## 1
Amino acid sequence: MSDTNLQNTKSNRRNFLKLSLLGSAIATTQVFGNDDGRILREATSSELKENFPNSKKIKTICTHCSVGCGIIAEVNDDVWVRQEVAQDHPISQGGHCCKGADMIDRVRSTTRLRYPIEKVNGEWQKTTWDSSMDKIAKKLNELREKHGPDSVMFIGSAKVSNEQSYYIRKFAAFFGTNNIDHQARI
């Protein structure tokens, strides 16, 4: 093989990424291309119904991140049954990301935490909000008294709005520390 042919076969980073993506696309097509109903299915007749008999539409926002895209939740007998994009929302302007499109499933998830829990003797047990807040406040005060305010760090999140970020920062300052960061940097 001559040197010029050898140079043509060398791969740079861009070519490697292109080939990797192509390979992934081919593999995905081979695995899922002939689905045979394993992943996709037709909607049932009840899912295709235009309206539930007693449903009401409620304008709300997606809480996945702090952008606040608009969602119209269809609620029937206090159960969120369907959702659509709020076309007139000033932020999302009739669209939202895949996480927002899946918001209904996050709300209806059986693994969603709906109340405070604590581990007692190795078992998770339901507790009250007041009890949880009292224990957290007591522990924070203990840490501050024993080790000083810089022994604690407060961490923000992409789910937090600007206003929530402001009061988390204020709380940290009143606690006596500048130890605050965003979860994405940790």
Note: Residues 149-186 form one domain.
## 2
Amino acid sequence: MLIEGIILGILIGLVLGTIGAGGAILAVPGLIAVIGLSTVAATTSSLVIVGSAAVAGFIPRLKTKTVDVRLGITFSALGVLGTYVGTQLVSVIPVSAQITLFAVLMFGSAFAMWRGPVIESDSSPRSQWFLVFLVASAIGLLTGLLGVGGGFLIVPALVLILKVPTKTAAGTSLVAISSTSAIAFLMRFQYWDEVPIAPIAAFTLAAIVSSFLAAPLAQKLNPRTLQKAFAIFVSLTATFILVSKVI
């Protein structure tokens, strides 16, 4: 179980460090399958793993200036209300409905990134704050409800709405993921006793190391390749989730 968990942590860190999203998409089903956690325990534990790996992923990007810390924190702050609402809905919305919603949104974000324009300019993003508020609130709600960092929505929002360069969007997404994950975890205090400390600590350490080492790889990828990789990964994962959990 420990070996499988460490491998899972490495994969989570690799995906997060490279495309700036997808950590919780792997973490939640993985924690359920590997150590048999309940859905609530898995989503709560994933916030620790993904949030920590996100921090490790954006730190190397500070040197290359492919991360906008202020924008990431602002984006996260705008989603606090949604995070609170989502946390309150955990025990209300059926698990099957949560999974279906998760998958549908994943397909939507993948499609948007696949067809969306490639942004390479380093100029300041063109702000559309009303749309940003709506998207950030929705991402916050998903973070609270599903225990995800929201990167699979944050990256498309930054690229397609705020016109942030693709590589910078991946780094900025990690900032937002780390802060929203921390907020959601604090709001889930009633579920902390369901988190198995030793296994989650091992998974988290593996994810941190992997994310830190993978971050430089993203800088070598073509922006269009990065967007395509994001879209493919999210689509395949959404399909797997629907097939294994709903259909």
Note: DSSP finds eleven helices and no strands in the chain.
## 3
Amino acid sequence: MQTISPQQAEKLIDAISDIASRASAAILAIPLSAAAQRTKDDLSPVTAADEAAEAVILEGLARLCPGVPVVAEESVAQGRLPDLIGDSFFLVDPLDGTKEFIAGRNEYTVNIALITGGTPIAGVIAAPAQGRLWRGVIGVGLAERLRLAFSAPASEATERRAIHVRPAPALLKAAMSRSHLDSATQDLMSRLPIGERYMCGSSVKFCHLAEGSADIYPRLSPTCEWDIAAGIAILAAAGGAVAAPDGGVLRFGNRADKFRVPGFIAAGDAQSLKRLAER
């Protein structure tokens, strides 16, 4: 299939946002008491809300971009993968932060990313319990936060605000994973000028960096591509950057590695990322 350009992605972003909005509504429609939690083979939890959201997203993307492959977390868990991924494809996490959802926290998200040439070029992250949606397209100057009632379309947002990262202050504000804080990440943090740190679940941490309310988000343990692709696109569109733990470039579509990356360091101030990765 042909590569999808940033300009084409910009035209698609409203439609992708609408799909994420409908998926958010599907999650909110399921009471936690009826979520039917179970444990997958990798020991992570999954609920009826995860599956309902993924069904909405898969149907929506199939209508929007027929023939463009979709790699979605719950489908992969059940052994369903596109025969050929190609140069452009979607990465989907229908409910990122299932543990937060089960715990009744408002940090869980819906993640949809468009990958071209191994790089996330467009991303949408919706936070259903917060009524917020972040989105960005690299290369066209689009990075914004919307407030809307799910399942309303993006065109009916009650608030629309352009977002941008902030320059790194002398003392950084660090976003930390609530469920996956490993010893290597803690060691890195001990060597950085951190003035404040906070715990948070899901990919919403990338959005905090993108809108300038935090400065750094490191995770030096492996994670899945669908957990971070949308956040990376939004952060990059807002002026930030993400690197592998060794400072290298993250590439997406690693089918042989089961769509996993070795970890990452995300920073709002792109100029400081290389220095952080070298510590």
Note: Residues 172-277 form a domain with the D-Maltodextrin-Binding Protein; domain 2 fold (CATH 3.40.190.80).
